[in-house]
Design goal:
491 residues; mainly beta; Jelly Rolls; 21-stranded parallel β-sheet; five-stranded mixed β-sheet; 2% helix; 48% strand; globular
Length: 491
Amino acid sequence: MNYRALALTAFEDGTLALSGVSENETHIYHIDPAAPGGIAVIGFGVVEGTIGQPTRSRGGMSIPVSGADGFTTVHLSDAELALGNPSAVVPDTDGDGAVDSVDRCPTVHGTGVEVCASSGALARTTALFAAGELRVNDRSSVRSADGTLQAVRNAGHGDTNLGVESEVGSVVATGSVTLRDRSLVEGAVIAGGSVAVGSGVHVGSVAESSSVSLASFEALSFDFPTYEAGSVLLGPGESQAITPGAYSSVLLHADSHLELSGEGPFYFGSLTLGPDALVTVDDRFGPATLMVESSLVLDGYLETRSGSHNTLFIGYLGSSQASIHRSFSGTLVAPHAKINLASTPLGHFGAFFGQSIELHQDTVVWFHPFVAEWPAFQHSEPAPPSPECAVASAVDLGAPGHNVTVSAGGCVRVQDGYPSWWGTRVMQLQSTAGTSAPIAFTWNNACSGSGGSGVINGDWQSLSLASTSHACATLIDLKGADAGSVSLRYY
Protein backbone atom coordinates (compact mmCIF):
# COMPACT_ATOMS: atom_id res chain seq x y z
CA MET A 1 0.00 0.00 0.00
CA ASN A 2 1.32 3.45 -0.93
CA TYR A 3 0.47 6.19 1.55
CA ARG A 4 0.46 9.96 1.03
CA ALA A 5 1.53 10.52 4.65
CA LEU A 6 2.59 8.51 7.70
CA ALA A 7 2.39 9.44 11.39
CA LEU A 8 3.56 7.60 14.51
CA THR A 9 1.99 8.08 17.95
CA ALA A 10 3.43 6.64 21.19
CA PHE A 11 1.03 5.70 24.00
CA GLU A 12 1.73 5.57 27.74
CA ASP A 13 1.21 1.79 27.78
CA GLY A 14 4.24 1.38 25.50
CA THR A 15 2.30 0.57 22.34
CA LEU A 16 2.34 2.65 19.15
CA ALA A 17 -0.14 3.78 16.51
CA LEU A 18 1.13 4.06 12.93
CA SER A 19 -1.30 5.99 10.69
CA GLY A 20 -1.08 5.81 6.90
CA VAL A 21 -3.17 8.24 4.82
CA SER A 22 -4.45 7.22 1.37
CA GLU A 23 -6.95 8.98 -0.90
CA ASN A 24 -10.22 8.35 0.96
CA GLU A 25 -9.22 6.70 4.21
CA THR A 26 -6.62 6.26 6.92
CA HIS A 27 -5.16 2.90 7.92
CA ILE A 28 -4.25 2.56 11.59
CA TYR A 29 -1.78 -0.09 12.76
CA HIS A 30 -1.64 -0.82 16.49
CA ILE A 31 1.95 -1.94 17.22
CA ASP A 32 3.51 -3.60 20.25
CA PRO A 33 7.30 -3.07 20.08
CA ALA A 34 7.85 -5.34 23.12
CA ALA A 35 5.88 -8.35 21.89
CA PRO A 36 7.43 -11.79 22.33
CA GLY A 37 9.65 -12.42 19.35
CA GLY A 38 9.97 -8.73 18.46
CA ILE A 39 7.83 -5.91 17.11
CA ALA A 40 4.30 -7.08 16.24
CA VAL A 41 1.17 -5.58 14.70
CA ILE A 42 -1.57 -6.38 17.23
CA GLY A 43 -4.39 -4.46 15.61
CA PHE A 44 -5.56 -2.82 12.42
CA GLY A 45 -8.44 -0.53 11.50
CA VAL A 46 -9.67 1.64 8.65
CA VAL A 47 -11.26 5.05 9.17
CA GLU A 48 -12.92 6.99 6.36
CA GLY A 49 -11.24 10.40 6.10
CA THR A 50 -8.10 11.99 7.53
CA ILE A 51 -7.37 11.63 11.23
CA GLY A 52 -5.61 13.63 13.92
CA GLN A 53 -3.51 12.18 16.72
CA PRO A 54 -5.09 9.08 18.33
CA THR A 55 -5.22 8.70 22.12
CA ARG A 56 -5.62 5.61 24.31
CA SER A 57 -8.91 5.49 26.22
CA ARG A 58 -11.55 3.01 27.38
CA GLY A 59 -9.62 -0.05 26.24
CA GLY A 60 -9.02 1.19 22.73
CA MET A 61 -8.23 4.28 20.67
CA SER A 62 -10.13 7.55 20.43
CA ILE A 63 -9.48 9.01 17.00
CA PRO A 64 -10.31 12.56 15.83
CA VAL A 65 -11.47 12.44 12.19
CA SER A 66 -11.66 15.36 9.77
CA GLY A 67 -13.94 14.69 6.81
CA ALA A 68 -16.78 16.06 4.74
CA ASP A 69 -19.04 16.10 7.80
CA GLY A 70 -16.59 18.16 9.88
CA PHE A 71 -14.74 17.08 13.01
CA THR A 72 -15.71 13.72 14.48
CA THR A 73 -14.32 11.56 17.27
CA VAL A 74 -14.64 7.80 16.81
CA HIS A 75 -13.64 5.07 19.23
CA LEU A 76 -12.12 1.73 18.23
CA SER A 77 -11.90 -0.88 20.95
CA ASP A 78 -8.90 -3.20 21.14
CA ALA A 79 -11.22 -6.05 20.12
CA GLU A 80 -12.22 -4.14 16.99
CA LEU A 81 -8.60 -3.35 16.18
CA ALA A 82 -7.46 -6.94 16.67
CA LEU A 83 -8.40 -8.03 13.16
CA GLY A 84 -5.41 -10.37 13.05
CA ASN A 85 -6.33 -12.14 16.30
CA PRO A 86 -8.51 -15.22 15.66
CA SER A 87 -9.87 -15.09 19.22
CA ALA A 88 -11.18 -11.55 18.89
CA VAL A 89 -14.82 -10.93 17.99
CA VAL A 90 -14.55 -8.21 15.36
CA PRO A 91 -17.69 -6.53 13.97
CA ASP A 92 -16.73 -6.06 10.30
CA THR A 93 -19.92 -7.19 8.57
CA ASP A 94 -18.85 -6.51 4.98
CA GLY A 95 -15.25 -7.71 5.42
CA ASP A 96 -13.67 -4.58 3.96
CA GLY A 97 -11.30 -3.94 6.88
CA ALA A 98 -13.32 -0.99 8.19
CA VAL A 99 -14.95 -2.17 11.40
CA ASP A 100 -18.65 -1.45 11.66
CA SER A 101 -18.32 1.35 14.22
CA VAL A 102 -16.44 3.57 11.73
CA ASP A 103 -17.68 2.19 8.41
CA ARG A 104 -20.08 4.58 6.67
CA CYS A 105 -21.77 1.59 5.04
CA PRO A 106 -21.12 -1.45 7.24
CA THR A 107 -23.00 -3.83 4.92
CA VAL A 108 -21.40 -2.69 1.65
CA HIS A 109 -17.82 -3.80 0.87
CA GLY A 110 -15.56 -0.84 0.21
CA THR A 111 -14.28 2.11 2.21
CA GLY A 112 -14.44 4.95 -0.29
CA VAL A 113 -17.67 6.47 -1.54
CA GLU A 114 -20.36 3.88 -0.87
CA VAL A 115 -24.08 3.46 -1.43
CA CYS A 116 -25.63 1.85 1.62
CA ALA A 117 -28.11 -0.98 1.33
CA SER A 118 -29.75 -1.34 4.73
CA SER A 119 -32.37 0.75 6.45
CA GLY A 120 -29.86 1.38 9.18
CA ALA A 121 -27.83 3.01 6.42
CA LEU A 122 -30.94 5.00 5.50
CA ALA A 123 -30.16 7.02 8.61
CA ARG A 124 -26.85 7.93 7.00
CA THR A 125 -28.26 8.97 3.64
CA THR A 126 -31.47 10.91 4.40
CA ALA A 127 -31.70 14.43 5.84
CA LEU A 128 -35.49 14.60 6.36
CA PHE A 129 -37.56 11.44 6.84
CA ALA A 130 -41.23 11.54 7.86
CA ALA A 131 -43.73 8.80 8.57
CA GLY A 132 -46.83 10.91 8.01
CA GLU A 133 -46.67 14.43 6.59
CA LEU A 134 -43.60 16.25 5.28
CA ARG A 135 -43.48 19.98 4.54
CA VAL A 136 -40.53 21.96 3.19
CA ASN A 137 -41.90 25.49 3.20
CA ASP A 138 -41.30 28.43 0.88
CA ARG A 139 -37.69 29.16 -0.09
CA SER A 140 -36.27 26.49 2.20
CA SER A 141 -33.82 23.83 1.08
CA VAL A 142 -32.05 20.64 2.16
CA ARG A 143 -28.33 20.44 1.42
CA SER A 144 -25.10 18.70 2.32
CA ALA A 145 -22.18 20.62 3.78
CA ASP A 146 -20.83 21.33 0.27
CA GLY A 147 -24.18 22.72 -0.89
CA THR A 148 -25.36 19.65 -2.83
CA LEU A 149 -29.13 19.24 -2.66
CA GLN A 150 -30.22 16.24 -0.58
CA ALA A 151 -33.04 13.69 -0.61
CA VAL A 152 -36.23 13.87 1.45
CA ARG A 153 -38.47 10.85 2.07
CA ASN A 154 -41.92 10.20 3.47
CA ALA A 155 -42.94 6.65 4.37
CA GLY A 156 -46.41 7.75 5.53
CA HIS A 157 -49.58 8.35 3.56
CA GLY A 158 -49.77 12.06 4.34
CA ASP A 159 -48.89 14.70 1.77
CA THR A 160 -45.32 15.67 0.94
CA ASN A 161 -45.39 19.39 0.20
CA LEU A 162 -42.55 21.45 -1.28
CA GLY A 163 -43.22 25.17 -0.95
CA VAL A 164 -42.69 28.01 -3.39
CA GLU A 165 -39.02 28.18 -4.50
CA SER A 166 -38.01 25.38 -2.16
CA GLU A 167 -35.12 23.13 -3.24
CA VAL A 168 -34.28 19.47 -2.58
CA GLY A 169 -32.28 16.74 -4.29
CA SER A 170 -35.01 14.14 -4.77
CA VAL A 171 -38.32 13.02 -3.28
CA VAL A 172 -39.55 9.51 -2.52
CA ALA A 173 -42.99 9.31 -0.92
CA THR A 174 -45.55 6.61 -0.26
CA GLY A 175 -48.40 9.11 -0.65
CA SER A 176 -48.98 12.16 -2.83
CA VAL A 177 -46.53 14.97 -3.55
CA THR A 178 -47.21 18.66 -4.14
CA LEU A 179 -44.60 20.83 -5.88
CA ARG A 180 -45.45 24.50 -5.42
CA ASP A 181 -44.56 27.23 -7.92
CA ARG A 182 -40.89 27.51 -8.90
CA SER A 183 -39.78 24.73 -6.58
CA LEU A 184 -36.73 22.69 -7.61
CA VAL A 185 -36.18 18.94 -7.37
CA GLU A 186 -32.82 18.19 -8.88
CA GLY A 187 -33.49 14.47 -9.32
CA ALA A 188 -36.59 12.30 -9.43
CA VAL A 189 -39.95 12.59 -7.69
CA ILE A 190 -41.27 9.08 -7.03
CA ALA A 191 -44.72 8.92 -5.45
CA GLY A 192 -47.15 6.18 -4.54
CA GLY A 193 -49.93 8.70 -5.14
CA SER A 194 -50.32 11.67 -7.44
CA VAL A 195 -47.83 14.48 -8.08
CA ALA A 196 -49.25 18.01 -8.37
CA VAL A 197 -46.86 20.34 -10.22
CA GLY A 198 -47.15 24.12 -9.97
CA SER A 199 -46.00 26.84 -12.34
CA GLY A 200 -42.30 27.13 -13.18
CA VAL A 201 -41.30 23.96 -11.34
CA HIS A 202 -37.98 22.35 -12.26
CA VAL A 203 -37.84 18.60 -11.67
CA GLY A 204 -35.59 15.87 -13.03
CA SER A 205 -38.37 13.32 -13.56
CA VAL A 206 -41.76 12.40 -12.14
CA ALA A 207 -43.18 8.92 -11.49
CA GLU A 208 -46.76 8.83 -10.15
CA SER A 209 -48.75 5.88 -8.79
CA SER A 210 -45.51 3.99 -8.26
CA SER A 211 -45.08 0.97 -6.05
CA VAL A 212 -43.00 2.62 -3.31
CA SER A 213 -41.39 0.51 -0.62
CA LEU A 214 -39.35 2.53 1.87
CA ALA A 215 -37.29 1.16 4.71
CA SER A 216 -38.40 3.00 7.84
CA PHE A 217 -38.01 3.17 11.56
CA GLU A 218 -40.82 1.67 13.65
CA ALA A 219 -39.84 2.86 17.12
CA LEU A 220 -37.12 3.76 19.49
CA SER A 221 -37.26 0.98 22.02
CA PHE A 222 -35.63 1.61 25.37
CA ASP A 223 -36.69 1.74 29.02
CA PHE A 224 -36.24 4.89 31.05
CA PRO A 225 -34.58 4.19 34.39
CA THR A 226 -35.97 5.57 37.63
CA TYR A 227 -35.38 9.30 37.81
CA GLU A 228 -33.01 9.04 40.77
CA ALA A 229 -31.01 12.16 39.85
CA GLY A 230 -33.98 14.46 40.46
CA SER A 231 -34.59 17.56 38.38
CA VAL A 232 -32.47 20.43 37.08
CA LEU A 233 -33.80 23.99 37.32
CA LEU A 234 -31.57 26.91 36.36
CA GLY A 235 -32.65 30.50 36.80
CA PRO A 236 -31.70 33.31 34.41
CA GLY A 237 -27.95 33.47 33.98
CA GLU A 238 -27.18 30.46 36.22
CA SER A 239 -24.74 27.66 35.34
CA GLN A 240 -24.39 23.99 36.33
CA ALA A 241 -22.65 20.80 35.19
CA ILE A 242 -24.24 17.35 35.45
CA THR A 243 -23.04 13.81 34.83
CA PRO A 244 -24.86 10.99 32.98
CA GLY A 245 -27.99 9.84 34.75
CA ALA A 246 -31.80 9.99 34.78
CA TYR A 247 -33.34 13.39 35.49
CA SER A 248 -37.10 13.85 35.84
CA SER A 249 -37.03 17.29 34.20
CA VAL A 250 -34.50 19.79 32.90
CA LEU A 251 -35.64 23.42 32.72
CA LEU A 252 -33.26 26.23 31.78
CA HIS A 253 -34.46 29.82 31.96
CA ALA A 254 -33.10 32.58 29.73
CA ASP A 255 -29.32 32.86 29.34
CA SER A 256 -28.55 29.93 31.66
CA HIS A 257 -25.90 27.30 30.87
CA LEU A 258 -25.95 23.56 31.52
CA GLU A 259 -22.91 21.40 30.78
CA LEU A 260 -23.40 17.67 30.21
CA SER A 261 -20.13 16.09 31.37
CA GLY A 262 -19.64 12.70 29.73
CA GLU A 263 -21.03 11.16 26.59
CA GLY A 264 -24.05 9.68 28.37
CA PRO A 265 -26.57 8.41 27.90
CA PHE A 266 -28.54 11.13 29.64
CA TYR A 267 -32.22 10.43 30.35
CA PHE A 268 -34.58 13.38 30.72
CA GLY A 269 -38.29 13.19 31.49
CA SER A 270 -38.59 16.57 29.78
CA LEU A 271 -36.15 19.09 28.33
CA THR A 272 -37.08 22.77 28.07
CA LEU A 273 -34.61 25.51 27.09
CA GLY A 274 -35.64 29.14 27.54
CA PRO A 275 -34.53 31.96 25.21
CA ASP A 276 -30.76 31.87 24.61
CA ALA A 277 -30.22 29.14 27.19
CA LEU A 278 -27.32 26.85 26.29
CA VAL A 279 -26.62 23.14 26.80
CA THR A 280 -23.03 22.08 26.05
CA VAL A 281 -22.60 18.38 25.29
CA ASP A 282 -19.28 16.61 25.86
CA ASP A 283 -18.38 14.61 22.73
CA ARG A 284 -14.60 14.50 23.23
CA PHE A 285 -14.53 10.74 23.80
CA GLY A 286 -17.29 9.64 21.47
CA PRO A 287 -20.77 10.55 20.26
CA ALA A 288 -23.25 11.68 22.92
CA THR A 289 -26.80 10.41 23.49
CA LEU A 290 -29.80 12.16 25.06
CA MET A 291 -33.13 10.39 25.58
CA VAL A 292 -36.21 12.52 26.29
CA GLU A 293 -39.45 10.89 27.39
CA SER A 294 -42.38 13.30 27.26
CA SER A 295 -41.63 16.93 26.26
CA LEU A 296 -38.99 18.66 24.11
CA VAL A 297 -39.00 22.47 23.68
CA LEU A 298 -35.83 24.21 22.52
CA ASP A 299 -35.91 28.02 22.58
CA GLY A 300 -32.19 27.90 23.30
CA TYR A 301 -29.18 26.07 21.91
CA LEU A 302 -27.66 22.59 22.11
CA GLU A 303 -23.99 22.55 21.17
CA THR A 304 -21.28 19.90 21.19
CA ARG A 305 -17.96 20.75 22.78
CA SER A 306 -16.14 19.86 19.54
CA GLY A 307 -18.44 21.98 17.40
CA SER A 308 -19.31 18.91 15.32
CA HIS A 309 -22.79 18.48 13.88
CA ASN A 310 -22.78 14.67 13.73
CA THR A 311 -21.92 13.53 17.25
CA LEU A 312 -25.18 14.23 19.12
CA PHE A 313 -28.20 11.92 19.04
CA ILE A 314 -31.53 12.86 20.64
CA GLY A 315 -34.25 10.25 20.87
CA TYR A 316 -37.65 11.71 21.78
CA LEU A 317 -40.52 9.37 22.67
CA GLY A 318 -43.24 11.92 23.44
CA SER A 319 -46.28 12.58 21.28
CA SER A 320 -46.41 16.35 21.77
CA GLN A 321 -44.65 18.45 19.15
CA ALA A 322 -40.86 18.64 19.29
CA SER A 323 -40.37 22.41 18.97
CA ILE A 324 -37.00 23.56 17.65
CA HIS A 325 -37.02 27.36 17.72
CA ARG A 326 -33.27 28.02 17.38
CA SER A 327 -30.55 26.60 15.14
CA PHE A 328 -30.19 22.90 15.99
CA SER A 329 -27.14 20.66 15.62
CA GLY A 330 -27.47 16.87 15.79
CA THR A 331 -29.72 13.97 14.84
CA LEU A 332 -33.26 14.10 16.22
CA VAL A 333 -35.54 11.04 16.06
CA ALA A 334 -39.17 11.48 17.18
CA PRO A 335 -41.22 8.51 15.96
CA HIS A 336 -44.48 9.62 17.64
CA ALA A 337 -44.32 13.40 17.26
CA LYS A 338 -44.16 16.22 14.78
CA ILE A 339 -40.75 17.92 14.46
CA ASN A 340 -41.22 21.65 14.01
CA LEU A 341 -38.08 23.31 12.61
CA ALA A 342 -38.43 27.07 12.94
CA SER A 343 -37.03 29.63 10.52
CA THR A 344 -33.49 30.62 11.46
CA PRO A 345 -30.76 32.49 9.54
CA LEU A 346 -28.15 29.86 10.41
CA GLY A 347 -30.35 26.92 9.45
CA HIS A 348 -30.34 23.51 11.15
CA PHE A 349 -27.48 21.02 11.05
CA GLY A 350 -27.88 17.24 11.20
CA ALA A 351 -30.76 14.91 10.30
CA PHE A 352 -34.40 14.67 11.34
CA PHE A 353 -36.70 11.64 11.55
CA GLY A 354 -40.23 12.27 12.79
CA GLN A 355 -43.84 11.15 12.61
CA SER A 356 -44.22 14.36 10.63
CA ILE A 357 -41.80 17.20 9.85
CA GLU A 358 -42.28 20.86 8.98
CA LEU A 359 -39.29 22.93 7.88
CA HIS A 360 -40.38 26.55 7.98
CA GLN A 361 -39.67 29.13 5.32
CA ASP A 362 -36.30 30.64 4.36
CA THR A 363 -34.29 28.00 6.20
CA VAL A 364 -31.66 25.44 5.18
CA VAL A 365 -31.21 22.00 6.69
CA TRP A 366 -27.51 21.16 6.36
CA PHE A 367 -27.27 17.37 6.31
CA HIS A 368 -24.76 15.77 8.71
CA PRO A 369 -25.60 12.11 9.45
CA PHE A 370 -24.97 10.77 12.94
CA VAL A 371 -21.50 9.24 13.12
CA ALA A 372 -22.53 6.06 14.95
CA GLU A 373 -25.41 3.57 14.90
CA TRP A 374 -28.64 4.78 16.47
CA PRO A 375 -29.09 3.47 20.02
CA ALA A 376 -31.87 0.90 20.57
CA PHE A 377 -33.03 1.29 16.97
CA GLN A 378 -35.59 -1.08 15.49
CA HIS A 379 -36.35 -0.97 11.79
CA SER A 380 -38.29 -2.71 9.08
CA GLU A 381 -36.97 -3.56 5.67
CA PRO A 382 -38.85 -3.54 2.36
CA ALA A 383 -40.20 -6.98 1.58
CA PRO A 384 -37.49 -8.93 -0.25
CA PRO A 385 -38.18 -10.85 -3.44
CA SER A 386 -39.36 -14.43 -3.10
CA PRO A 387 -36.63 -16.91 -2.09
CA GLU A 388 -36.80 -18.60 -5.49
CA CYS A 389 -35.34 -15.50 -7.15
CA ALA A 390 -31.84 -14.61 -5.93
CA VAL A 391 -29.04 -12.46 -7.30
CA ALA A 392 -26.62 -15.37 -7.42
CA SER A 393 -28.84 -17.49 -9.68
CA ALA A 394 -30.51 -14.76 -11.77
CA VAL A 395 -29.89 -14.35 -15.52
CA ASP A 396 -27.99 -11.11 -16.19
CA LEU A 397 -29.40 -8.77 -18.86
CA GLY A 398 -25.95 -7.43 -19.71
CA ALA A 399 -25.48 -3.92 -21.12
CA PRO A 400 -28.32 -1.47 -21.95
CA GLY A 401 -30.14 -2.37 -25.15
CA HIS A 402 -29.01 -6.01 -25.12
CA ASN A 403 -31.91 -8.48 -25.66
CA VAL A 404 -32.08 -11.55 -23.41
CA THR A 405 -34.81 -14.21 -23.72
CA VAL A 406 -35.84 -15.98 -20.52
CA SER A 407 -38.71 -18.02 -19.15
CA ALA A 408 -41.83 -16.02 -18.29
CA GLY A 409 -41.45 -17.41 -14.78
CA GLY A 410 -37.73 -16.74 -14.61
CA CYS A 411 -35.46 -14.56 -12.52
CA VAL A 412 -33.31 -11.85 -14.09
CA ARG A 413 -30.98 -9.14 -12.86
CA VAL A 414 -29.11 -6.08 -14.06
CA GLN A 415 -25.66 -6.09 -12.50
CA ASP A 416 -22.71 -7.09 -14.68
CA GLY A 417 -23.41 -4.71 -17.55
CA TYR A 418 -24.17 -1.43 -15.75
CA PRO A 419 -22.37 1.36 -17.66
CA SER A 420 -19.99 3.53 -15.64
CA TRP A 421 -22.28 6.55 -15.94
CA TRP A 422 -25.38 4.83 -14.55
CA GLY A 423 -25.21 6.07 -10.95
CA THR A 424 -28.74 6.16 -9.50
CA ARG A 425 -31.53 6.62 -12.03
CA VAL A 426 -34.88 5.39 -13.32
CA MET A 427 -34.48 2.19 -15.37
CA GLN A 428 -36.71 1.54 -18.39
CA LEU A 429 -37.42 -2.20 -18.66
CA GLN A 430 -38.68 -3.13 -22.15
CA SER A 431 -40.22 -6.28 -23.57
CA THR A 432 -39.52 -7.05 -27.23
CA ALA A 433 -41.18 -9.52 -29.65
CA GLY A 434 -42.69 -12.87 -28.61
CA THR A 435 -43.95 -12.03 -25.12
CA SER A 436 -46.13 -14.67 -23.40
CA ALA A 437 -48.27 -11.96 -21.78
CA PRO A 438 -49.43 -11.13 -19.23
CA ILE A 439 -46.40 -11.51 -16.96
CA ALA A 440 -46.52 -10.04 -13.47
CA PHE A 441 -43.22 -9.24 -11.81
CA THR A 442 -41.66 -7.75 -8.71
CA TRP A 443 -38.30 -5.99 -8.48
CA ASN A 444 -35.95 -4.42 -6.00
CA ASN A 445 -32.63 -2.62 -5.75
CA ALA A 446 -31.19 -2.75 -2.25
CA CYS A 447 -28.75 0.15 -2.67
CA SER A 448 -31.40 2.65 -3.75
CA GLY A 449 -33.86 1.29 -1.17
CA SER A 450 -36.49 0.98 -3.90
CA GLY A 451 -38.69 -1.79 -5.25
CA GLY A 452 -42.11 -2.44 -6.66
CA SER A 453 -44.23 -4.53 -8.99
CA GLY A 454 -45.77 -4.38 -12.44
CA VAL A 455 -47.25 -6.34 -15.33
CA ILE A 456 -45.83 -6.92 -18.80
CA ASN A 457 -48.95 -6.90 -21.00
CA GLY A 458 -47.41 -7.46 -24.43
CA ASP A 459 -44.60 -6.80 -26.87
CA TRP A 460 -42.61 -3.56 -26.89
CA GLN A 461 -43.88 -2.34 -23.55
CA SER A 462 -41.67 -0.08 -21.42
CA LEU A 463 -41.97 0.02 -17.63
CA SER A 464 -40.22 2.44 -15.27
CA LEU A 465 -38.26 1.03 -12.32
CA ALA A 466 -37.58 3.96 -10.03
CA SER A 467 -34.96 4.20 -8.89
CA THR A 468 -32.00 1.86 -9.44
CA SER A 469 -28.38 2.13 -8.34
CA HIS A 470 -25.39 0.59 -10.09
CA ALA A 471 -23.90 -0.27 -6.68
CA CYS A 472 -26.28 -3.23 -6.36
CA ALA A 473 -28.07 -5.66 -8.64
CA THR A 474 -31.56 -4.74 -9.79
CA LEU A 475 -33.37 -8.05 -9.26
CA ILE A 476 -36.51 -8.82 -11.30
CA ASP A 477 -38.71 -11.80 -10.37
CA LEU A 478 -40.98 -12.80 -13.27
CA LYS A 479 -44.19 -14.54 -12.23
CA GLY A 480 -45.56 -15.76 -15.56
CA ALA A 481 -46.00 -19.35 -16.71
CA ASP A 482 -42.71 -21.24 -16.86
CA ALA A 483 -43.68 -22.62 -20.29
CA GLY A 484 -43.87 -19.11 -21.74
CA SER A 485 -41.02 -16.76 -22.56
CA VAL A 486 -40.17 -13.08 -22.79
CA SER A 487 -37.32 -11.15 -24.37
CA LEU A 488 -36.17 -8.23 -22.20
CA ARG A 489 -33.76 -5.35 -22.38
CA TYR A 490 -33.26 -2.15 -20.40
CA TYR A 491 -32.21 1.44 -20.84
